[in-house]
Every structure is written in structure tokens, then in C-alpha cells.
Design brief:
two-stranded antiparallel ribbon; two-stranded antiparallel sheet
């Protein structure tokens, strides 16, 4: 006879499963359609703030310091055919996000804070921040780069931002 899982067991199994940048991207696309540039930056900010607040990455994929800001190559390759066009809205939130209140809350908060900005505005914002700048150190603004944006740099910068916001 097959074992039937109750909801608590299901939640525990999902929590133990690995989340990917694609899960995070699909969560943002559940909220709204958007360009790849905007999607990349929202996923970057989710990873950065998770590092700052929980001292661990949310997913295993890295971001590189490309000309137009942080880019996860895996995510880029999935959506590159859209070019500058919007990626359509998703019909459902990924289960791995829905069943974990902390992940859902973080992604929702990132969308609330940054979701009203365009991809170009998010690009300018990331260009003004230390993690992307450090990864591109010594490069001209038009020079391509595959340099990985350090998780340590992301964690430290956004943790400092968080602490500053607590003192305001």
C-alpha cells in the first residue's frame, strides 16, 4: 500500500528541495510580465538580500558583472530569445516558493521595493553599488566581463545597507 503524505510532510520535503534562480524568476513573472533585464536585476537583489539577511545564498547560481549590470548566465540563456521584449506573466507561483513563508516574503518584498522600477533604472542602481563595481574593477564601461560578483561582497554591502536603514 502506498504511503500517503500529510501536508506537513509535503512542506518539509519541499523545504529540503533546492530552489533555483528559475524558481525565483517564475515567482517574479507570476507577479507581472517583464523584460529580461528587469528579471535579472530582481533575481540578483533577491540573492543579495538573502545573503545579507540570512547569511546564505537562496540559490546556487552566480551572477556575473556584465555591461548592463548583474546577470545570471543560466537565466540569460533561458530567456535570451525574448531580446528586449517582455517575458509573459506566469499562471502560478512555484510550489517551492509558496510553501516557504520566508522565501515568499523575501521575494514579495523585493518586488514591492524594486518592482516599480524599469530594467534600465535597475541597471543604473546596480551600477552605483559596490558589488558590481568591484567585480568590474579595472574595466571600461563598454568592456564585456564574465567576472563573478562575489557573494561576500554582496552580503557585506547589503548588510551595511540594512544596518543603515535601521538607524534612520
Amino acid at each position: 500500500m502506498a504511503k500517503i503524505l500529510n501536508f506537513a510532510d509535503f512542506r518539509r520535503r519541499i523545504k529540503m528541495s533546492e530552489i533555483s534562480v528559475f524558481d525565483v524568476a517564475n515567482a517574479f513573472l507570476f507577479f507581472a510580465p517583464m523584460t529580461q533585464k528587469k528579471l535579472q536585476k530582481l533575481c540578483y537583489y533577491t540573492q543579495a538580500w538573502n545573503l545579507a539577511l540570512y547569511d546564505e545564498p537562496l540559490f546556487n547560481q552566480d551572477f556575473q558583472a556584465w555591461i548592463h549590470g548583474p546577470v545570471c548566465p543560466d537565466l540569460y540563456n533561458r530567456y535570451k530569445d525574448y531580446g528586449w521584449n517582455e517575458i509573459e506573466k506566469q499562471d502560478s507561483m512555484p510550489t517551492v516558493i509558496v510553501v516557504d513563508d520566508n522565501k515568499y516574503e523575501l521575494i514579495s518584498e523585493i518586488f514591492r521595493i524594486y518592482g516599480g522600477l524599469t530594467g534600465d533604472q535597475l541597471e543604473l542602481l546596480t551600477h552605483s553599488e559596490k558589488p558590481w563595481q568591484e567585480a568590474r574593477s579595472g574595466l571600461k564601461e563598454w568592456e564585456p566581463s564574465n567576472a563573478i560578483i562575489s557573494s561576500t561582497s554582496m552580503r557585506e554591502f547589503y548588510l551595511d545597507e540594512f544596518r543603515r536603514s535601521q538607524n534612520d
